Known about the structure:
By secondary structure, the chain is an all-alpha fold.
Amino acid sequence: xxxxxxxxxxxxxxxxxxxxxxxxxxxxxxxxxxxxxxxxxxxxxxxxxxxxxxxxxxxxxxxxxxxxxxxxxxxxxxxxxxxxxxxxxxxxxxxxxxxxxxxxxxxxxxxxxxxxxxxxxxxxxxxxxxxxxxxxxxxxxxxxxxxxxxxxxxxxxxxxxxxxxxxxxxxxxxxxxxxxxxxxxxxxxxxxxxxxxxxxxxxxxxxxxxxxxxxxxxxxxxxxxxxxxxxxxxxxxxxxxxxxxxxxxxxxxxx
Length: 255
Ligand SMILES: [Zn+2]
Ligand SMILES: [Zn+2]
């Protein structure tokens, strides 16, 4: 009972900051890309038919509110476990060396990507899809608000890597914070509906990262491009759409 009280007491603050940060970023991306620069960016639209209407955005925003609540609960729980010494999240920079604090960011990046890929494959399993992941796939023409529009069970599954990882290895809290913002920006990019990366993005080492087109194709074609940050897992498992690079180039060549 005391534990629940301690967790719940932290939630309102975390819920408000999630709305402020996530809500603000999604709204800014929508305002600039979908409204203010709409005419200038019309050649950068990935799906030619604009199908996202007010009804879709309203429902995406409603789903996001539950995801913020869910996120506030999870982060309060992680904090509570930390106060009991159950996980290895630390705040004092001097506890480990500078190399570890920086390496933390990159390690979390790789772990989050792998966790997302395999959870995403699981969410597409026919016995689960209709109950959970279908909520996210209701958005076919994705908008920045689609980035937080999913079922609460999915919200829990996608973020739950924090439990085993924080039990096993020291995680520098500010590195986690920076990664959270990085993840948010990547998520909004994935659901932007517009390809803003330059044509040269798919050349050199940058091509190992996903573009907006990559995840956009997942929403329009369903069975492929499951990756979030990197293309590694899709490449290894043969789940990347064969025409992904071609589609990326076609968006770039549109006049
Ligand atoms: Zn999916
Ligand atoms: Zn998506």
